[in-house]
Amino acid sequence: NTMALDHEAIYKAYAGTVVTIDDGAGAFDKDGNKVTLDDAKVAAARKAIDDAAAAIKYKSDREKAFASVGDQLDMQYWDAVNGTSTWKDHVAKVKADNPKP
User: Fold this and answer.
1) Distance CA 12, CA 6 (A)
2) Residue 9 Cα distances to 6, 19, 63, angstroms
3) What is the pTM of this model?
4) Cross-strand bridge partners of residue 21
5) Are 12 and 45 within 8 A, CB to CB?
6) CB–CB of 18/11 below 8 Å?
7) Phi/psi of residue 2, each to 5°?
8) 90 Rama sector, left if φ>0, alpha if ψ -120 to 50, beta otherwise
């Protein structure tokens, strides 16, 4: 009977206590004693982990959406030559499409 334990959340919820986790046997302290896991405590730790990841996800989403630095410099050059706003429009769209939470 194998449990699918959330190792990351357990280590966060029981920092300094749980040092090993075995999906089939449970969580253990440094002396090999089994640690009884509180599902609510582990769920709260998972939520904190997920919330922290969501708070910064916009950064990686923006990195993927932005044109390369070379392309952005080219946009700036041509905007200066032509009096256009291609680069500013590009940056504004990426930021609007991927807002900070």
Assistant:
1) 10
2) 6, 13, 27
3) 0.64
4) 27
5) yes
6) yes
7) -100, 125
8) alpha
